[in-house]
TrEMBL record, chain A:
InterPro entries, alphabetized: Acetalactate_synth_ssu (IPR004789), Acetolactate_synth/TF_NikR_C (IPR027271), Acetolactate_synth_ssu_C (IPR019455), ACT-like_dom_sf (IPR045865), ACT_dom (IPR002912), AHAS_ACT (IPR039557), AHAS_small-like_ACT (IPR054480)
Keywords in alphabetical order: Amino-acid biosynthesis, Branched-chain amino acid biosynthesis, Coiled coil, Transferase
The protein, known as: Acetolactate synthase small subunit
EC number: 2.2.1.6
Recorded metabolic or biological pathway in which this protein acts: Amino-acid biosynthesis; L-isoleucine biosynthesis; L-isoleucine from 2-oxobutanoate: step 1/4; Amino-acid biosynthesis; L-valine biosynthesis; L-valine from pyruvate: step 1/4
Enzyme class per UniProt: transferase
A Pfam family reported for this protein in Swiss-Prot or TrEMBL: ALS_ss_C
SUPFAM superfamilies: ACT-like
Function, as annotated: Catalyzes the conversion of 2 pyruvate molecules into acetolactate in the first common step of the biosynthetic pathway of the branched-amino acids such as leucine, isoleucine, and valine.
Coiled-coil segments on the chain, per record: 48-75
Boundaries of every ACT domain copy: 4-79
Complexes and interactors: Dimer of large and small chains.
Automatic annotation (TrEMBL), chain B:
Domain Thiamine pyrophosphate enzyme TPP-binding: 408-556
Enzyme Commission numbers on file: 2.2.1.6
Thiamine pyrophosphate enzyme central domain sequence ranges: 215-350
Family, as annotated: Belongs to the TPP enzyme family.
A GO BP entry: isoleucine biosynthetic process
Name recorded for this polypeptide: Acetolactate synthase
Length: 171, 583
């Protein structure tokens, strides 16, 4: 199963290596990983998507991460209300004859054109990984020359849906 | 003339000047910090990158044991740490010095032995340039250490050493590597910096106090169990909770079995003790695990050599698992009642309760009958020669179970675990998790340094001994009375046994056609050597050798074709043991 895990770490040298090394040692498969500073100095946040076989393996993963001295907090946020975002840069063949057509396809995705050449256009698109997958699928027939994705980063929403039925208007 | 000159000669006196503040460098501060941590002995080997550290050690001495190979140094430190309960300190130089420590670091990690390992490193200015004797020891040791550090500013040095000692010795103990680049050791240290700063590690807060609700749940499970069983592991030894374990077991009359590393938590001849469990444990212990309805694991990690086939393990048992490392709980065996705590504190919390209705009389009666029915067994035959088991029974008899015993890995280790019954905790030093050949002999040296008055016996195989025998120099030098017993079967015994059992007797590369004369070898190091070939000789010579105040090497020529039994073969359950009865 696919899980989204956020890890808050002390920004020591080698901490990324520690975390990825641990995942490798325990045979976990990382699909994507993003790292950046958090709102606090000296503290960074990592978001990674991993594939785990079952609940027991997942528990192991969380506990092993928590055991690292430089790791402050580990959260599996897969089942929470979250915002998941990824950014992709897509360079696509776009001869002038087809440009209008491509632009009309791209428009609903609210992708930005960040570079234009004679026959190619580079789009920047952000959103959930599924949205980006769809975006790429649609552009594929035109010929994608280059593609890079950042991997997901995620955030827990301020309001969480409680499992029991409630009458809040917020959701 | 002469006298008048002397009379007029003026004596030049140096004017009194206020003493300039003495400059100290990183290396000096490092030694000072070690002293602050009351380090009495360090094990090491000098080299280029640690010259400043050895220079500081020369000026401000701590007892240093100069091993003949870094691996010997670190295994000695492991033995020292295991027996003393203190942190073992090792120093080696960069590059090959550091990589020679890797086996020992991994060994300490697997068996939770507290070590602070100092490695030299090339200067920070050339790190990453493939400089002479450079190795990325931080990268290399990251998966096999509890934590590791590279000192990048000399001001951080005392803090890092303080943290290293704290991390190594608290929670689940383990090895911490501190890599000190040469220019950090020579940099001038600003002495206004407090070297006693308190350790602040927000990401490292081991839980030692058990959750009371969980303790109550455990108590309830114990009160409803008909066949409870305690599996006592080395976590109890690290927590110094052996007394509490025995009190608890006696109070509720719960039988106890041990992991390999847990031997000594309860007296080997205690009525409630069933013997070691696992691959070469007693049939009674293994059947107790398979039939118990409550398995109370205290400080053990359900290693595969203990559990056999996990799918068949303890099928009827509810599992309570007390461990200071939360990641061990539920790793291999699903656990109904997890308790994250120091073993001693958890036992004390359990002892504080009065658990009603614990009646194990029938359960104990059946286990006691099993103990009588299925003891360890071997068939002595004077015609065929001396057996390792006979030697070990004699060793036990002559030392009354009071000796510190160290081993490598393999047949001799299993036989020692089976036949040496320990009276005291922390007297058993063996390489369990990593299974390191060459561990036992240097570990015995460390153990003897930790307990100079104790009898220390290193039981080793002829193959493992040859991996670290260079440390005989240490015995020659220090004259410490370590007794080396080589169970010499001219083979890699356990490899040979598996080849016999699982590879149709194809003894691929496991038999030694040529061997040194171990007695002569000992004599070359000015150590008395004995060669024992018969049981009759063993009775006389072993007694004499063990009574000596000097280091001694005893080469016991034992039967090569002997196998360790009983045995849980790979892939089978604990109840499917073979060789439980003599043929």
């Amino acid at each position: 199963m696919k899980r989204i895990i956020t890890v808050t770490v002390l920004n020591q040298s080698g901490v990324l290596n520690r975390v990825t090394g641990l995942l490798m040692k325990r045979q976990f498969n990382i699909e994507s990983i993003t790292v950046g500073h958090s709102e606090q100095p000296q503290i960074s946040k990592m978001t990674f998507v991993v594939h785990v076989e079952d609940k027991q393996k997942l528990e192991q993963l969380l506990k092993q991460l928590q055991k690292q001295v430089d790791v402050l907090k580990v959260n599996d946020i897969t089942e929470k209300q979250i915002v998941v975002r990824e950014l992709a840069l897509v360079k696509v063949l776009s001869p002038p004859t087809l440009r209008a057509e491509i632009n009309s396809i791209v428009e609903p995705f609210r992708a930005a054109t960040i570079d234009t050449g004679k026959n190619v256009v580079t789009f920047q698109v952000t959103g959930s990984p599924e949205k980006i997958d769809a975006f790429i699928d649609l552009l594929k027939p035109y010929g994608i020359k280059d593609l890079t994705r950042t991997g997901v980063t995620a955030f827990v929403r301020e309001t969480q849906i409680v499992n029991s039925p409630q009458l809040s208007i917020l959701h | 003339m002469k006298t008048s000159v002397e009379a007029t000669e003026q004596v030049y006196e140096e004017p009194e000047m206020p003493e300039a503040p003495k400059q100290v460098n990183g290396a000096d501060i490092f030694i000072q910090t070690l002293k602050k941590h009351k380090v009495e002995v360090v094990f090491g080997y000098p080299g280029g990158a640690v010259l400043p550290i050895y220079d500081a050690l020369y000026k401000n001495p701590i007892r240093h044991i100069l091993a003949r190979h870094e691996q010997g140094a670190i295994h000695a430190a492991e033995g020292y740490a295991r027996v003393s309960g203190k942190v073992g300190v090792v120093i080696a130089t960069s590059g090959p010095g550091a990589t020679n420590l890797v086996t020992g670091i991994a060994d300490a990690m697997m068996d939770s032995i507290p070590l602070v390992v100092i490695t030299g490193q090339v200067a920070t200015t050339v790190i990453g340039t493939d400089a002479f004797q450079e190795a990325d020891i931080i990268g290399i040791t990251q998966p096999i250490t509890k934590h590791n550090y590279q000192v990048k500013n000399v001001e951080d040095l005392p803090r890092i050493i303080n943290e290293a000692f704290h991390i190594a010795s608290t929670g689940r103990p383990g090895p911490v590597v501190v890599d000190i680049p040469k220019n950090m050791a020579t940099s001038i240290f600003d002495t206004t910096i407090d070297i006693d700063q308190e350790v602040y590690l927000p990401g490292y807060q081991p839980t030692t106090k058990p959750n009371f609700l969980q303790i109550q749940k455990a108590a309830k499970a114990i009160s409803t169990a008909k066949k409870p069983l305690i599996l006592a592991g080395a976590g109890i030894l690290f927590a110094q909770g052996s007394d509490q374990l025995v009190t608890f077991a006696e109070k509720y009359q719960i039988p106890v079995t041990n992991t390999l590393l847990g031997l000594g938590t309860i007296e080997g001849e205690h009525d409630l003790f069933l013997g070691m469990a696992g691959m070469h444990g007693t049939y009674t212990s293994n059947m107790a695990i398979q039939t118990c309805d409550l398995l109370i694991n205290i400080g053990a990690r359900f290693d595969d050599r203990l559990t056999g086939n996990l799918n068949l393990f303890a099928p009827n048992a509810k599992v309570i698992h007390i461990d200071i490392d939360p990641a061990e709980i539920g790793k291999n065996v699903p656990t109904e009642i997890p308790i994250v705590a120091d073993a001693k504190e958890a036992l004390e919390a359990l002892l504080a309760l009065d658990i009603p209705n614990v009646d194990t009389a029938d359960w104990l009666a059946s286990l006691n009958a099993s103990k009588v029915e299925y003891p360890y067994h071997y068939k002595a035959d004077a015609e065929k020669g001396l057996l390792a088991q006979q030697v070990l029974e004699l060793v036990h008899e002559y030392t009354n179970g009071d000796a510190i015993v160290t081993t490598d890995v393999g047949q001799h280790q299993m036989w020692t675990a089976q036949y040496y019954k320990f009276n005291h905790p922390n007297n058993w030093v063996t390489s369990g998790g990593l299974g390191t050949m060459g561990f036992g002999f240097p570990a015995a040296i460390g153990a003897q340094l930790a307990k100079p008055d104790a009898q220390v016996i290193s039981v080793v195989g002829d193959a493992g001994f040859q991996m670290t025998l260079q440390e005989l120099s240490l015995l020659q030098e220090m004259r410490i009375p370590v007794k080396i017993i080589i169970l010499n079967n001219r083979a890699l015994g356990m490899v040979r046994q598996w080849q016999e059992t699982f590879h149709e007797e194809r003894y691929s590369q496991s038999l030694f056609m040529i061997q040194p004369d171990f007695v002569k070898l000992a004599e070359a190091y000015d150590i008395k050597g004995y060669k024992i070939e018969t049981f009759e000789d063993a009775k006389v010579q072993l007694k004499e050798a063990l009574a000596s105040n000097e280091p001694v090497l005893i080469d016991c020529r034992v039967v090569q074709k002997e196998c360790v039994y009983p045995m849980v073969t790979p892939g089978t359950g604990l109840h499917e043991m073979i060789g439980v009865k003599p043929e």
